[in-house]
């Protein structure tokens, strides 16, 4: 789907709260004009925006899966973001390696908890294993 139908579908899928609120406001304005009863306006707005919209929001909100996030997380937000971008295909392997090397070069020496081991080699090896796992 491209063009206008694709944009409309994307907006309805991702911005349904705004569309719903706009429809509620329109219905609230139209209700007194169609029925002749003035108190329909605040009644429709109250039930639509204060009761129905939050209920729909809670029912459609995705539940995060914390178990998967903790298993793949390295504790370093920059490294996690870099791995996620590579997994999504936003960056290629060469750019991933370049950014990983730059990230490891700028790593602060104070964050090293095991002075006997080479942290950069361990991180690089774990990332390479992850890249191989993603490719399979």
Estimate the global geometry from the Cα principal axes: elongated
Helix/strand structural class: mainly alpha
Tell me about the biggest sheet?
none
Q: What is the number of strand segments?
A: 0
Strand content: under 5%
Strand-and-helix sequence, N→C?
A: HHHHHHH
- Indicate the mean pLDDT: 78
Helical residue percent? Answer: over 70%
Distinct helical segment count: 7
Which stretches of 5+ consecutive residues score pLDDT under 50?
Answer: none
Write the topology of this structure.
Elements: H1 3-14, H2 16-35, H3 40-60, H4 66-72, H5 77-88, H6 93-105, H7 119-135
Please explain how this structure is put together.
- It is a single chain.
- With 136 residues, the chain is an all-alpha fold.
- It is 75% helix and 0% strand.
- It has helices at 3-14, 16-35, 40-60, 66-72, 77-88, 93-105, 119-135.
- Helix 2 packs antiparallel against helix 3 and helix 5 (77-88) runs antiparallel to helix 6.
- It starts with a helix and ends with a helix.
- The relative contact order is 0.06.
Structural features:
single chain; 136 residues; mainly alpha; 7 helices; 75% helix; 0% strand
How would you concisely characterize the structure shown here?
This protein has 136 residues and is mainly alpha-helical. The chain has helices at residues 3-14, 16-35, 40-60, 66-72, 77-88, 93-105, 119-135.
């Amino acid at each position: 789907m491209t063009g206008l139908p694709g944009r409309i579908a994307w907006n309805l899928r991702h911005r349904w709260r705004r569309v719903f609120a706009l429809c509620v406001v329109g219905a609230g304005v139209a209700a007194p004009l169609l029925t002749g009863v003035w108190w329909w306006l605040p009644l429709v707005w109250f039930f639509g925006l204060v009761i129905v919209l939050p209920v729909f929001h809670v029912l459609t909100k995705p539940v995060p899966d914390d178990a998967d996030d903790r298993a793949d997380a390295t504790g370093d937000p920059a490294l996690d973001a870099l791995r996620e971008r590579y997994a999504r295909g936003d960056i290629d392997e060469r750019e991933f390696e370049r950014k990983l090397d730059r990230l490891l070069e700028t790593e602060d020496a104070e964050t090293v908890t095991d002075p006997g081991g080479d942290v950069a080699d361990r991180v690089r090896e774990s990332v390479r294993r992850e890249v191989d796992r993603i490719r399979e």
